[in-house]
Automatic annotation (TrEMBL):
PANTHER family: MALONYL-COA-ACYL CARRIER PROTEIN TRANSACYLASE, MITOCHONDRIAL
Keyword Transcription regulation: no
Active site: 92, 200
Name of this chain's protein: Malonyl CoA-acyl carrier protein transacylase
Documented EC number(s): 2.3.1.39
Pathway assigned to this chain's UniProt record: Lipid metabolism; fatty acid biosynthesis
Occurrences of domain Malonyl-CoA:ACP transacylase (MAT) (ranges): 7-300
Protein's organism: Buchnera aphidicola (Aphis glycines)
């Protein structure tokens, strides 16, 4: 047995026929997805299996789908008597998955929040053009200076994922111009991210206000397992502080690299990604100190299970 942290992914990990190796035989997965489907009035199992991809990528459906994926995998982990982690943390939307698994937030409440979160985010882009790009191999301070050129806050640093990867988002034209500047200053590679909304940017402030109002009626308890939040890289214990962090993370930078550094500072070097893909696992691949595992399919799940337990 070893100490480890559980990491929960956010939007962008979805794809047609994901979790197929689990959904064929494991009743836990069908039960979780049926509950989620009933709550948002959409057959998520059918959507995952048949698509279309355009609908899967619509935030109104994507966010409950990813939440349900992580919750189902965690429930299966516990059914197999998998040990609990020392820490949990979720990337953006994944923070809700972490709070549910840490028994701080009810699954049904999380579904309500994230389905509306996705719906409001999608509405923000109506008749407007936005872009999200990943910048590979350029210093964080240089990217900050480039973003600051746009004084109307049309380009934001959405997420600092690792030493090597930073995500920028905002107005389509300005993000494109900023990415050209990043290339000029030495970025090794730049690519579009699988998102059609300007995540973690100033554009999202009206959405944050709406989520703040929804959270007023939601009960959040102290997590049974410490959950490291996105905006402060802290493990909050009271409802007020947790809600505040959830509101702020909608428009503020996700400090993912600092979260991984924090976990390592606690002498924990094994990371388990609990979701339908391996994006967070890949972010750690250049860190020689880390053992990074994922649960994207049954083979990976049981390999990780043996390594940790």
């Amino acid at each position: 047995m070893r100490l480890f942290a559980m990491l929960f992914p956010g939007q962008g990990v979805q794809y047609i026929n994901m979790l197929s190796s689990f959904l064929k035989k494991e009743k836990i997965f069908r039960n979780v997805f049926e509950e989620a489907s009933e709550h948002i009035s959409c057959n998520l199992l059918k959507l995952i299996k048949e698509g279309p991809l355009e609908k899967i990528n619509h935030s109104k459906y994507t966010q409950p789908m990813i939440l349900a994926s992580s919750i189902a995998i965690y429930k299966f982990w516990r059914k197999c008597n998998g040990k609990n982690p020392s820490f949990m943390s979720g990337h953006s939307l994944g923070e809700y998955s972490a709070l549910v698994c840490a028994k701080a937030l009810k699954f049904t409440d999380a579904l309500k929040i994230v389905s509306l979160r996705g719906k409001y985010m999608q509405k923000t882009i109506f008749n407007k053009s936005y872009l999200v790009k990943a910048i590979i191999g350029l210093n964080e301070n240089i990217i900050k200076k480039i973003c600051h050129k746009y004084t109307s806050n049309t380009v934001s640093i959405a997420s600092i994922n690792s030493d090597n990867q930073i995500i920028i988002s905002g107005s389509k034209l300005d993000v494109y111009k900023a990415s050209l500047d990043c290339k000029k200053y030495g970025a090794k590679f730049i690519f579009d991210v699988n998102l059609n909304i300007p995540v973690h940017s100033c554009v999202m402030k009206p959405v944050a206000k709406k989520i703040e109002n929804i959270l007023k009626d939601i009960k959040i308890k102290q997590p049974r397992i410490p959950v490291i939040n996105n905006v402060d890289v802290k493990c909050e214990n009271n409802s007020k502080s947790i809600k505040k962090a959830l509101v702020k993370q909608i428009y503020k930078t996700v400090r993912w690299k600092e979260i991984i550094d924090f976990i390592q500072s606690k002498n924990i070097f094994t990371m388990l990604e609990v979701g339908p893909n391996n994006i967070l696992t890949n972010l750690n691949k250049n860190n020689v100190n880390l053992i990074s595992l994922n649960t994207s399919n049954k083979k990976c799940f049981f390999y990780a299970f043996k390594k940790i337990n």
